[in-house]
Amino acid sequence: MLAGNLRREYPSQLSHRLFDDGDVRPPRQLTPVFFGCYDWHSAVHSHWALARLRGAGAEPRAIADAALASSITEAGVAGELAYLQRRAAFERPYGLAWLLVLAAELRAGAPALATTLAPLEALAAARLVAWARELPAPIRSGEHAQSAFALGLALDWARATGDGDAAAAITAAAERLHGDERDAPLHWEPSAHDFLSPALGAAALMARVRPRRGSRPGSTASRPPSGAARPWRRRRRAIAVTASWSTGTAWRCRAPGCWPSSPPPCPTTIRAAPRWRRTPPPTAPPASPRSTT
Predict the structure, then answer these.
(1) Does the pLDDT value for residue 69 go beyond 50?
(2) Contact present, 81 and 37 (Cβ < 8 Å)
C-alpha cells in the first residue's frame, strides 16, 4: 500500500502559490518526488514509513528499496528544490520537520538515497532553524502548524546527524518558548480538530531538552497546578502519550471507564482541581400527574 501510494497522484490537495501561468501544472510536475499520498507532507512521511520498514525483513526491504529508489532521484530532488526555493514558507513547519526525519532514517539505512536527498535536507534544516530562532511565541495548534511537535522532530534529526549548531538553536528556542510554562490546561483538550496535543507536544519537546528529571527548577508544560505535586506523581503514569499522532489519540487515562468514554480530565487523572471533577448530569424533574378533570 505504501509503495503504491507514493506514485498515486490523485486525489491531491495542493497548497500552491502561483507566480505565473507556468505554475499551473499537475502535482507530479510541481513536486516530482513528493506528489502522491494526497498532499506533500503525507508523501514525505510515507517515504519515511517505507524507509523505516526496511528493517522489518528481506521482503519489506526489497519492496521499500525499489519504491524509494524509483522516487528519490537526482532529477526529482532538483525539481523539489526549484519549487521550494520560490516558496519560503512552504510546508513549514510540519512537512519540513518530517523531511528531516526521513533524511535521518535514510542516513542510517540507505546512505546513497540520503546523499541524493541531501540538498533538500539542507534547505529544510536551514529554514526550520531560522524559523525557530525568530518565532516570537509558540504556535499552540493541535494541527500541522504546531511549533513544539515540529521542533521536537527537528531536534531528533539534529542529534541523530550530529548537527550541533542546529541542536543548540532548537534547544534555545524550546527554552525560550516553553521553559517557564506550567499549569497546562489539559481540561481544554482535545479540540474537535486536533490530531496533536498542544500541551503534550510542548511536554514532549521539553523532555528532549531536559531529559533528566529534576535537572532544573521550574516546570514544563506537563506540570500540574501548584500544590498538587504529590497526587500528580501518584497518577501521572496513568497518562499514555501515543506515537500514533495521525489517529487523533493524543493522550488518554488508563484508569477503567475513563476517557474517551468520558471527557478529560477525570478525577482519577488529576486530583488537584476538584472543580474539574465530573458531575452527574442533572436529572429531569418528575412529571406532574395529568389532571383527570
Answers:
(1) yes
(2) no
State the cell numbers at 204.
514532549
Which residues, 6+ apart, have CB-to-CB distance to 75 below 8 Å? 32
Q: Which amino acid is at 115?
A: T
Rounded alpha-carbon distances, angstroms, from residue 76 to 9, 69, 80, 99: 15, 11, 6, 15
- Euclidean distance between CA atoms 108 and 128, whole angstroms: 21
pLDDT band at 3 (very low <50, low <70, confident <90, very high): confident
Whole-structure pTM value? 0.74
Return the closest-CA partner of residue 120 out of 100, 106, 147. 100
CB 3 within 8 A of CB 64: yes
Burial class (CB in 10 A: 0-12, 13-18, 19+), 192: exposed
Q: How does pLDDT run across 130-154, given as a tens digit for each residue?
A: 999 999 999 999 999 999 999 999 9
Give the residue extent of every domain in the chain.
Answer: 2-183+194-210, 236-267
Average of per-residue pLDDT across 51-79: 95
Q: How many CB atoms lie within 10 A of CB 261?
A: 9
Judge whether 162 and 107 are in contact, CB under 8 Å: no
CA distance 201 to 214: 19
The CA-CA-CA angle for residues 277, 279, 281, to 5°, reads 155
